């Protein structure tokens, strides 16, 4: 499933460098709440939960039950265990929950790690109740102008270009009986400036798929861009803009169809 082997060192780097401050996720809270309309009885399956950033956010924001599904043992060990967060081994093609038992599926920066998207779409259709959404947080090809990394490391767009497009994802999920419900861009904000970003870049590179793809020369050129901006006193508030793609299954009337 993963383009990165998430060992203990990489999992620790991910948690240290890639998790966003909760205050920077307020627009995600609004967007997810609007499409999910959660209640305390809601069950969200967080597929590819990583270190549990969104599993814990959903629990705190919405008082819902979260099933955090993560294939990498090192990442699972970073996820807090609580009465509301159930952590399990699995991936998008083998989700260990019962049929028609979930009120939503959340996939955050996961689509590009899924080797068999068709199988994943079928598995998500299996676990979701009728009308329950798949919420996909993702940078899609051709839609990364607002991604901070692309600003400083433009070569990372080359990697994103290899990811499934919005149209490819929608077509694959349509074959499993889903329809596209919404596509919008959501801004997330960092709690630190460029100087902190510069200091954390080496750790960030170890934990990010697109950054790992850079040659050493490409990485050093991008790092020099950030260093020059810091030297010039550029300390604007940092932000990132990613897509939220919402898909919903049609009401079950027998076998899933296109």
Word description of this protein:
This protein is 39% helix and 18% strand. With 258 residues, the protein is of the alpha/beta class. It has a seven-stranded mixed sheet with strand order 3-2-1-4-5-7-6, with helices on both faces. The protein is globular. The relative contact order is 0.16.
Beta-strand percentage range: 15-25%
What is the percent of helical residues? Answer: 25-40%
Low-pLDDT runs of 5+ residues are 253-258
Structural class: alpha/beta
Helix run count? 11
Overall pLDDT metric: 90
Q: Would you report the number of β strands?
A: 7
Q: What order do the SSEs take from the amino end to the carboxyl end, as H and E?
A: HHEHEHEEHEHHHEHHHE
Mind describing the biggest β-sheet? 7 strands, mixed
Sheet with most strands: strand arrangement: 3-2-1-4-5-7-6
Task: Give the overall shape.
Answer: globular
Distance between termini?
A: 25 Å
Can you describe this structure in just a few lines?
With 258 residues, the protein is an alpha/beta fold. The protein has 11 helices and 7 strands.
Tags for this model:
disordered C terminus, single chain, 11 helices, seven-stranded mixed beta sheet, 7 strands, alpha/beta, 258 residues
């Amino acid at each position: 499933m993963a383009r990165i082997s998430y060992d203990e060192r990489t999992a620790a780097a991910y948690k240290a460098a890639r998790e966003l401050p909760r205050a920077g996720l307020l627009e995600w809270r609004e967007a997810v709440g609007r499409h999910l309309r959660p209640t305390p009885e809601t069950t969200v399956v967080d597929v590819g939960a990583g270190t549990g950033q969104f599993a814990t956010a959903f629990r705190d924001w919405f008082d819902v039950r979260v099933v955090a599904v993560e294939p990498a043992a090192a990442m699972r060990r970073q996820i807090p265990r609580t009465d509301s967060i159930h952590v399990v081994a699995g991936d998008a093609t083998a989700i260990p929950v019962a049929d028609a038992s979930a009120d939503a599926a959340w996939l955050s920066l996961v689509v590009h790690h899924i080797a068999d998207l068709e199988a994943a779409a079928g598995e998500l259709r299996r676990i979701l109740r009728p009308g329950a959404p798949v919420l996909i947080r993702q940078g899609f090809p051709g839609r990364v102008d607002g991604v901070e990394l692309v600003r400083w490391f433009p070569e990372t767009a080359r990697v994103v270009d290899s990811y499934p497009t919005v149209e490819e994802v929608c077509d694959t999920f349509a074959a499993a009986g889903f329809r596209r419900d919404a596509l919008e861009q959501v801004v997330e904000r960092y709690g630190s400036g460029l100087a902190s970003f510069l200091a954390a870049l080496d750790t960030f590179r170890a934990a990010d798929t697109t950054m790992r793809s850079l040659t050493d020369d490409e990485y050093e050129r991008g790092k020099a861009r950030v260093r020059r901006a810091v030297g010039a006193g550029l300390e604007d508030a940092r932000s990132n803009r990613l897509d939220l793609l919402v898909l919903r299954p049609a009401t079950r009337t027998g076998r899933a169809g296109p």
